[in-house]
Amino acid sequence: MGENTRRIYFDHNATTYMRQEVIDAMQPFLRDRFGNASSLHFFGQENRDAVDDARADIARILGAEPEEIILTSGGTESDNLAIRGVVMARRKAPGRCHIITSVIEHPAVLKTCEALEDEGCDVTYVPSDGEGLVRVDILEESIRPETVLVSVMLANNETGVIQPIGRISELTRKKEIILHTDAVQGVGKIGVNVDDLGVDLLSISAHKFYGPKGLGALYVRRGTDLEPVYTGGSHERGLRPGTENIPGIIGFGKACRIAKESLPKEIKYIGELRERLERGILERIEDVIFIGTGAPRVPNTCSIVIPRIEGEAVTLNLSMLGFAVSSGSACSSGKSEASHVLTAIGLDPADAQGGVRISLGIENTSLEVDAFIEAFAVVVERLRKLSPLNG
User: Fold this and answer.
1) Each residue of 109-154: pLDDT tens digit?
2) Are 100 and 124 in contact (CB under 8 A)?
3) Do residues 85 and 226 touch, judged by C-beta distance below 8 A?
4) What domains does the chain contain, in order, with CATH numbers?
5) What predicted TM-score, i.e. pTM, was given to this entire model?
6) How are strands ordered across the β-sheet holding 122-126?
7) What is the β-pairing status of strands 122-126 and 335-337?
8) Which of 97, 113, 256, 331 is catalytic?
9) Residue 331 catalytic?
10) Residue range 342-368, pLDDT digits in tens
C-alpha cells in the first residue's frame, strides 16, 4: 500500500484504538504513581484506591457489585478461569463433570472445553440454527444430572448475532447449573446487565471498546463455586494472583465509564452506518449472502459471504486499497480453512471460505462507508472474473 493511500479501519471486533481520555487517565500511573497496590505505604494505598475506583466503573457497566469483579489479562484468561474454575470446584464429586457449550464459541472457550475432554470431562457442543442462534431446545435436552456448567457467548465475534442468554438462564437456574457467557463482543456495544441475563459468570475485554490491550475481567456472582487456575498470591480474592497492571486497570475503568455514558448515542450512530453499508452492498453486488440478519445483532457487525471467492483474497485486496476488514476463514498449518461459525450455520465449506466480517467503530463516517462500498464492489468483480469456480 502506497504512502498516500487512505487507511480506513473496519475491523473493530478484532481490536479498537484507545480513546484519548483513556490514555490521559493511564498516563500518571506509567511513571509517577508507580506503587504496588498491595503495599501498605502511601505509594501503594493511593494506587489501591485508584484500582478500587476502576473496579467500581467496570462493575457499573455490568450492573454488578465491585467485589464481584475479578481483574484478568483479557477475555481468554477470563474464559479459562470461568470454565476451569467451575470444573475444579465441582468435579470434587465423583463422576460430576459435564459441560454444555455451543459450536459457535470463540476458540478461548472451545479449546478450553476440548482440553477438559482430554482430562476426563464430558462436553456437549450444541448446534446453531441457520441464523447463527444457539438451539436452546437442544441445549435443554442436553442437560444431565452431572452437568456443572453451561457456557454460551453473548454475541458472536464473526456474525454479531446476540444469543438468547436470558432463555438459557431460565433453564440453568431451575437445575442449579452455573451459567457462563463470553460477553467480549457484547459489552461496550449493547447494554449488558448481569441480573437481566441471569448469568453467574461473564467475561469481558477492555480492548474491544476503546480500552487498553491485555486487560479483562470476569464477573463472578456471589456464591458461585470457583477455584483458582493459578496459585501464588491472594490478589483478586485469591482467584487471580499476580501484581496488578495498574495503568491498564485505570484505562479499563475509564473505558467502561465512557462506554456506559455514551452507549445509547453510539448504538444509534453505528447502527445507521451499518444500515447504509448493507443497503449499499445490496445495491452494488449480486449474489451476496448476509449472515444473521433475521436475528438480533450487535449494531456494528456485518457478516457477509461471497460464494465461490476466497474471503482472504477479498481481505487482502481491500487492504491494498486501504480498507481493513477481517476474513471469515482462518489460516491453520498453511491451509485456509472455512470459518467454524459459518459452517455451523449450514453454509457449504467452499462458500464459507468467502466470508468477510466488517465491524464498524465510533470514528467511522458515512463517507468512509460509501468509499468502502465502491472499493468492495470493484474487488468482488475483479475476483469473480479470476475465479475458476465462476467459469
Assistant:
1) 999 999 999 998 999 999 999 999 999 999 999 999 999 999 999 9
2) yes
3) yes
4) 8-16+263-390 (3.90.1150.10), 20-258 (3.40.640.10)
5) 0.94
6) 69-72, 216-220, 201-205, 178-182, 147-151, 98-102, 122-126
7) unpaired
8) 331
9) yes
10) 999 998 888 888 899 999 999 999 999
